[in-house]
Amino acid sequence: MTPIVGRKATGLVAATFTPLTPEGEINLSEIRPYVDYLLEQQGVKSIFVNGTTGEGMSLTVEERKLLAVEWLIQNVARHAAEIGADGISVISPSFFKPATAEALRMFLQEVAAAAPAMPFYYYHIPAVTGVNLRSRDVLEGIANQIPSFQGLKFSGSDLMDFGQCVNYSPSHWSLLYGIDEQLLGALAMGANGAVGSTYNYLGSSVNRLMSAFDKGDLPKARTIQFQVQDILCYAINLGFDLAVNKQLMSEVSGLALGPPRLPLLPCPHPKALSIAQRLQQILGEQ
Ligand SMILES: CC(=O)N[C@H](C=O)[C@@H](O)[C@H](O)[C@H](O)CO
Ligand SMILES: CC(=O)C(=O)O
Fold first, then answer.
1. Which residues hold pyruvate (predicted)?
2. Which residues sit opposite 168 in a β-bridge?
């Protein structure tokens, strides 16, 4: 089988929130303005949909399909891109957890085989799945088992494991980092780009962080990373979860993203407003 080499993902990728109506139904009409906002206000050109931030696990398969198509249509319309999705990514099963990296790799192989033409990324997010197998071990020999394998979305804090993945990877793979608070550490380790929830509203700042890093201006990159951390520390002190994050995005962008789905509880308006104000203040200080 010929390996499928997709467009190598680089730069910033926003993990999008799923717009819902006040009644909790998916709200496809908010997607076009959302894409406009990311492009025009944040300079973010790539999106990761139906993931953690998009409450993918709380959506039906039918809803996920409708959303994926709408995100694609709106995104492709903006970019005049000739292709649709650049790839799919798959997390570990988390109810029955794989006992070994090999078991997980075999699972990923079966899923990837269902869409063999689609560039495939393993999505490591141990804090959510509870699966702490080292990604480096999952990658061992994976190109032989998954010809469409294209890289890793690594949302773990173990930078040694991440570094070992970078060191193992052929140059056409893409290694994307997913803990926004410490992206700079992962860039130093060799990340090709980043996928995260905060790039919905901090994209333009973090784009500057990445270009400062590319130019070797570490003091500047660090200043921006510390701003991101200061914003998130403020939010964490108030109690920060995905519902708060979603409401914060509505607050900052003016988009009507609606409530989260259970078991997440809606975020009280004043809380998101307070974080949004602190965010403006911190970014204004630069
Ligand atoms: C658990 C989770 O949702 N992680 C996201 C990406 O994987 C991150 O983008 C975080 O939301 C972000 O780093 C803020 O903590
Ligand atoms: C943040 C991220 O990558 C996700 O929402 O899945």
1. 53, 195
2. none
Which among 92, 96, 103 is positioned nearest to 140, based on CA atoms? 103
Nearest to 46 by CA among 82, 6, 4, 76: 76
DSSP code for 114: T
Q: Which of 197, 206, 242, 249, when mutated, tests ligand 2's pocket best, judged by the most ligand atoms within 8 Å of its CB? A: 197
Which residues is 196 bridged to in the sheet? 14
> In this prediction, what percent of the chain has a pLDDT beyond 90?
90
Q: How confident is the model at residue 79 (pLDDT cuts 50, 70, 90)?
A: low
What does pLDDT average to over the chain?
Answer: 94
DSSP bridge partners of 134 = none
Ligand 1 atom closest to Cα of residue 180? 13
Atom of ligand 2 nearest to the CA of 180: 1
Q: How far is 187 from 142, CA to CA, in rounded Å?
A: 24
Dig out the tokens for 119 from the structure: 């560039």
The H or E element containing residue 48 is strand 46-48
Contact 174, 193 (CB under 8 A): yes
- Interface pTM, i.e. ipTM: 0.95
CA of 3 to the centre of ligand 1 (A): 31
Distance from C-alpha of 229 to C-alpha of 128, rounded to nearest angstrom: 21
- Assess whether the C-beta atom of 195 lies below 6 angstroms from ligand 2: yes
Is pLDDT larger for residue 175 or for residue 6?
175
* Residue 171 token pair: 């140059």
The 10s digit of each residue's pLDDT in 207-253 is 999 999 999 999 999 999 999 999 999 999 999 999 999 999 999 99
State residue 37 phi and psi, 5-degree precision: -60, -45
Quote the pTM value. Answer: 0.95
